[in-house]
Write a structure and sequence with these properties.
418 residues, alpha/beta, 7-stranded mixed β-sheet, 14 helices, 37% helix, binds pyridoxal-5'-phosphate
């Protein structure tokens, strides 16, 4: 076996994995069609491309009502506002997620209450949610992370017992299903990102699935400068403004999204098939833990495939393993920081209204969330989705690279000088 590529040896994989986003003449034609139509933007909302995109999206994901927005962050802010969550209310979010999951409640005037994750799935731990519920808790945002889904049965049970609004953050979970139901259709809202790295992309964009016609009507109004809308978020009903913003998706994005929807089923099938194969193959590598796949998570469709390495077995932490994997030609990253490690909401550092008004709720330095810290600081290895669009060889190369790093781990262990 050759030396580790990180130390000058030859890499396991010298052929690049397939690129993203995938595009062909259909995208060019779709954009050209919109340009020629002269109807480029998102007004009046929804335009014909946007309405067609939303119909296709709901067909793929399930659910009856949806609105199209500029990204998958404002979708969550809009969901909270449409549900009446606002100033000083508490919204429970997992500690292991992108900043958007906590930024959305702050933007809506609410306090994000950061709780720990389940170490077996890296998703929101329902026991931690229950322990964090107070008289001011109004909502919870489970995140379906990587290739996982949060335990939606337990979360919906808690939500029903405590009267909470559930906004599923499905930025990573297009096409995923829980007991046969589409991610984002189980809670009151499902928020999807179409940002360029996501597995269904329009460059930028977001979709918000809403459980009822009334919630969709309110969400459409908030997204469309406060104009009134028909129930379900259908055509505008006039210029009777309430408080909203311009969060509309453009027709150009919707046209790209429509082509993405045509490609999506085949891409999802490939990833799901190879991920099943990968679960077994990665489990054979010493010191590698495959996250638990809940049998209720009936269709997996994912953005990143997250593994946990055991730093004691490897003698290395995850960032060193990722560095060595990248050198071997395997695209990966060490993933998010734990939310309470981010500077961004700290009252001393920002003049944001919520942290400034409730500084006692943002004492991040006093928070200890051991599972999120372990995942984000030591264990998690996020493999890129492209690894799973390159057939068995794609997965075999990733497994061989991890095995190589394990076998030669001593070479990477930082040596103490004597
Ligand atoms: C978990 C999660 N939530 C929300 C978002 C926000 O999506 P967007 O970038 O479209 O605002 C992202 C992605 O960037 C994400 O990964």
């Amino acid at each position: 076996m050759s030396k580790l590529a990180a130390l000058g040896g030859s890499p396991i994989r010298s052929v690049p994995y397939p690129g993203w986003p995938v595009h062909d003449e259909r995208d060019v034609e779709a954009v050209t069609r919109v340009i020629r139509s002269g109807n480029w933007g998102g007004y009046p909302y929804p335009g014909p491309e946007t309405a067609a995109f939303l119909r296709g999206f709901l067909e793929m994901q399930g659910g009856e009502y949806a609105i199209a927005c500029v990204n998958g962050t404002v979708t969550m802010e809009i969901a909270l506002r449409a549900a009446g969550v606002g100033w000083g209310d508490e919204v429970i979010v997992p500690a292991y997620t992108f900043q958007a999951t906590a930024a959305a409640p702050v933007a809506a005037g609410a306090i994000p209450v950061i709780v720990d994750i389940d170490p077996e799935t890296y998703c929101l731990d329902p026991r931690a949610v229950e322990a964090a519920i107070t008289g001011r808790t109004r909502a919870v945002i489970p995140v379906h992370l990587g290739a996982q889904m949060a335990d939606m049965d337990a979360i919906m049970d808690l939500a029903e017992r405590h009267g909470l609004v559930v906004v599923e953050d499905c930025a990573h979970a297009h096409g995923a299903k829980w007991r046969g139901r589409g991610a984002g259709t189980i809670g009151h809202f499902g928020s999807f990102s179409l940002q360029s790295s996501k597995i269904l992309t329009a460059g930028e964009g977001g979709v918000l699935i809403c459980r009822t016609a009334e919630l969709a009507q309110r969400a459409a109004s908030i997204a469309n400068c406060g104009r009134s809308h028909a129930p379900g978020g259908g055509p505008e009903g006039g210029n009777q403004f309430t408080m909203g913003g311009n969060y509309r998706m453009t027709e150009l994005q919707a046209a790209l999204g429509r082509v993405g929807l045509e490609r999506f089923p085949e891409q999802a099938r490939l990833r799901e098939e190879m991920a099943g194969y990968a679960d077994e193959a990665f489990s054979e590598v010493p010191g590698v833990r495959v996250l638990r796949r809940d049998p209720r998570h009936t269709t997996r469709s994912f953005y990143r495939y997250i593994l946990a390495i055991d730093p004691a077995t490897f003698g290395l932490e995850h960032d060193a393993v990722c560095y060595a994997l990248e050198a071997e030609g395997i695209p990966c990253e060490a993933g998010y920081e734990a939310m309470h490690r981010y500077d961004l909401f700290q009252p001393g550092l920002s003049r944001l209204p919520v942290p400034s008004a409730f500084p006692e709720r943002f004492r991040f330095d006093q928070m200890h969330l051991p599972e999120a810290e372990r995942a984000s600081e030591r264990e998690a290895v996020w493999l890129d989705e492209s690894v799973f669009r390159a057939g068995r060889r794609g997965v075999d190369d990733a497994v061989a690279a991890l095995q190589k790093i394990y076998d030669q781990r001593q070479e990477l262990v930082p040596r103490r000088s004597h």
